[in-house]
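User: I'm curious whether this sequence folds into something compact or stays loose and floppy. Could you predict its structure so I can see for myself?
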Amino acid sequence: MDMFQKLEKVLRKIHQIRKNKLFLITLFLFLDVVHAQIDQRFDLFDWEIIRQNESINSISEGYQYIFFATDANGILRFNKFSRKFESSLYLGQGVKSNKIKHVYFDKNTGILWLVGNKGLEFSNSRQGNWNNINFKRLSINSVRSVEDIGSSISFLWIKTISNYIKLDHVSGSLLGVFTFPDESNIDWGDINFKNRYSLGNFSFEDYFVEEAWLLGQDSAADNNGIFHKYNSYLKTKDGYSWIGLSNGQLLFLDDFSKTIKPQTVGVRVSVPLTISMNEKIWIGGINNSQYSSISSIENSFENIENFVETSYSGFSDSDFYSSEIVNDEVWFGSNGKVVVYNIRSDFFRTLGYEKGIPIKRIEFIEMIDQKVYIASSDDLVVLDSKSKKIINSPLTDLIKKNNLFINFLDVFDNKLHLSLNGRVYLLDSKENINIDKYESLFNDSIRVDEIYGNNENLFFSSDRGIYSSQGDRLIPSSIYFNYKVNDALQIDNTLYIGTSGGLAVYDIKEQQLNNFYDFSFIRNIFKVEQVDEFLVLLTSTGLIKLRLSL
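Assistant: Here's the prediction. I'll summarize afterward.
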């Protein structure tokens, strides 16, 4: 073999090695794409979650939106043109992480990136179609080790506690791990105060602060005197600035008018349990550890107002389990008291033991003919809606004399319907008690837990299933996997059943289950209501809007 033959052989080997290397690179890129494939279960904004924020961890500016990464409410979106907050990007849009530490909009590609507790995620549409890459594929230990995310013209970079990770800025494929980046033109994300950044010489003295907040160099005290740390800071191209706080609130800094406006996004109620509606949607429930709150939402879902106990003298230290619209007031049942909010006068007052309010948790409040029925699990009082004076009722005597347990109480067809010790009672406007109307539907072994429906058709839930007032047992409990039924709503021929394990959608006419939604972001459903073209679900994870076209 001469020298030229040897050289040719060597070149063939090199070529083959290059082909194999190219194949391996292509394979790895393919595997990354497969690993980061999109969850197809979610249509854009069919499911929307409205809940309390916990912490604003990161801020990034896009073409149309300012994006805020939160600990509990996904990614908040502020429309720069309409100057309004729009629907957040959360689990309902296919995002896998429920706690997001970093958000970054890459202006070179138009891709929105986030770092959360489930890995690195990105969306080309900046709204849905989320891809997920596990941290292990990126040589990242956990979300806690990630300090920042940024990009150059050609690459995406992640800064961790110990190194810098270089990624393909379209697919998220790992390209290398460096002690220091091999390029200098990296646009990093917002300023993160957790990395020991401070505002330094930045002075708030030139600004007028709304709502009597007190601003320092590393934290802010709200108008209730509670301090919240600065978590993140971003100055936009339009001359505005945002500061994200540890309690989930935001400070909006207008450099033109020199004003600072605190912003609250979402409801302050941690776990919504009760809903009432007139021109607005009124929400109460389990509150956070700092203060009690009641929330109102426009029926368009655009404007949310939170009524915080520290701003009013009429209520304090209250969780709310029931509610009712009473004339120009909203009544909220709490522990041994009823909190009454007068809408016209913007005034709260509390009704307690002096008004005969049961000393236990107020589970039910209902009104018929200006009589307000207020009940705990074993006691009931009737008040005049205007004078708030006690009205004698044979129902009160019946419950107390027979030591009856109140399973349920609601109004249908202008009659009070109750389940007492699992037996159905009716009370009309003249205080006549009827226990015979629905006796034929059940035998003695059936205990009715709750009653749902409308004036034409009622549904009675039991441990065996759901019975209809128009016939025999309609739905066996196995249909909804024997979960506890908390609420149900009939719309046309469909019954929406809120259970402890998700939402069952049942076709009444065909007598079959159409769907059962048990996504992780739904969990326990307490109430089901309709607002225009949406279902409103009160769940253990927050308030959920579901488009009825599903």
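Summary: Residues 34-189 form a domain with the Methylamine Dehydrogenase; Chain H fold (CATH 2.130.10.10). The CA atoms of residues 309 and 316 lie 5 Å apart.
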